[in-house]
Structure formats: structure tokens, C-alpha cells
Amino acid sequence: MAAHRKPRQRSIGGHTVRTAATFALAGAATATGFEGTGHADPQLTPEQVRAKVDQLYQEAETATEKYNGAKEKADTAQENLEELRDQAARRTDRLNSSRDQLGSQAAALYRSGGMDPSLQLALSADPDRYLDSAALAERVGSRQAADVSSVRKQLLDIERLRGAARVELSTLKSRQTELKRHKKTVTSKLTTARRLLDRVSEEDRPRFDAAGDRTSHTSRSSASTRGSLTGPVPPTSATADAPNSRASAAVSYAYTKLGSPYVWGATGPNAFDCSGLTQAAYRAAGVSLPRTTYAQINAGQRVARSELRPGDLVFFYSGISHVGIYIGNGQMIHAPNPSAPVRVAPLDEMPFTGATRVA
Length: 359
What we know:
55% of the residues lie in helices and 8% in strands.
């Protein structure tokens, strides 16, 4: 790499669990989040608190997926910018070498009795002057003409790369602004949810927990009536029923991450958000998935709910803001929200949107 290359910039957001966890726990003093809940009515029942917290988690997850998408684009812009700068540095090295060769030719001409005016112009401190001289190549010998033409082309190439880098830098700054906006939304929602949870007293905790379990209990009863949920799915059964070896490997990975904490923006190996878990699972299987739920749903072949097989990605909510990995018997493994670790859950726990079988 050229010695004068600009130092590599650190991309915003980072990929470490530590950074993601910092985001998830940031700023309790400044966030406002859910309208009016920063100073909520002290008479809210545990059931009302549960409903508001669940809503905040769902809104935070929607913002998280937008953050993940913006971060993916920002990382791409960062990589493109660095590659353009690398190319410009390499081209500048070659340009300097070519101009050194012209300088050697000029010195030889000077020693032999004088320097051609065109070479004086080419080696001047103002190279733009000779770029505008259309007759330059005609006033030097054939070899010198080729050398001067090469320098001219290299200067034009470098200016093109620098122009592209300026455009990419503008794109990167725009993505970074978008990242900050989504980060503020996520931390605000999560902080408000945390404040609400802190207000639930120990004596009200059983009612609060029961309010959260009610939907799951109803879903399990409904699913059992249909015969689609008959009990926990053992890993060996789930992997054996997978449609291919990649799906089997992804399911196996998901089982090993049960109990891992949910951290927004995290992609493993020790913490995950919902799309971070599915991406990591298929990455372990040798498959590269997009970062976001709304991109992952298009990463394979759509399948009907009645045709689900272990390893299929299952999506929820109208905005496609949540995803899990199907394991059979109407169940999935997913990263729910900051109040629950990676776990097994029924599909009916949330409004089902669609499913994709990864190719």
C-alpha cells in the first residue's frame, strides 16, 4: 500500500457485541420514546404496562431493522471509499514514477545541449497547462510523445477517481446521518420501555408476567387444536427434517445459541437481534444472507405456511420487522426482544407474514 494513503476510517456502528450493548443501554436520562409514557400515569395496570412495553419493543425492532439496513449501506460506502482512495494512491505512485522518467529524459536533453520546450511544460509545477496543449505530443519525439501521453492519461484517471471518492464520501455522510436518526429512535423506545418495567412492583410482577404469557398460551392451545404443535422439537429431529444440509446446519447453529441475550444491532457470536441471529445461523452454514428482515424475505423461495420445513425463515408483522428460524411442529427459534433471550416459541406468538426457504 502506498505510504501516502489516507488512514483507514473506522466505519460507524461497529460489529462488536460491546458496541451494540452500549447502544442498547444508552441514555436513560434523555430519551422520551413512546408519547407520554416517560411520565406515565401511575395508575397503569400491569396489563396496560405489558401492552405498552410490547408495543415499544415492536416499534424499536422496526427501527432496528432500518438501522441495520442503513448500516449495511454505510459499510458498503465506507469500503467503496477506501478502495477508491487505494486506487488513487496506487495511480499517484505510478504517475510519480512516469514523471521521474520524463525528468531523466529532460536531464539528458539538457546535458546534450538543451531541453525541449514541451518537456519543460510537462515537468512544470502547473500540469494543467500542458493538459490543455493539444499539440504537445506532436512537438516531441515518438518515445517522448508516448511518455507524455501516458502521464496525461494517468492524471485524468486520478482526477476521475478523486471525483468518484467525493461522491462516495457524500453518500457515506448521508448514511451516517441516517444511522444516528435510527439509533436515537431505538434507544428512545427501549429506554421508555425500561422505565415502564421499572415501575412494575414486585407484588404486581405475577400479573405483568401473566399478561405476557396470555398470548403465548392462547396460541399454543390454538395450535395444539390444529395438531401443529405437539411439544418441544429435539435438535436431531429438526435437523433431520430440514430440506437440505445448509438448512440443517443453520438450525443446528440456532439451537446452540438458545439463551443468548437479545442486543439490538448484534450479529453474534454471543448476542443477537432477530435478523442478526438468522444471518449468523446461515453464515455458519456457508450461506450469506442480507442483514435485514425485509431483505432476507427475498433471499430464497417463498413457501406457504402449510409447507414449512426446518430451516425456513419465518417473518412477522405487516412491516416484516421480525424473523425466526422454523424448527418444526409449529415452532421457531428467534431472538425476541431485550426482555427475553434467544428461545423456542410458537409461530402464533406474533402475526405471521410469510416464509422463505433459503436456496
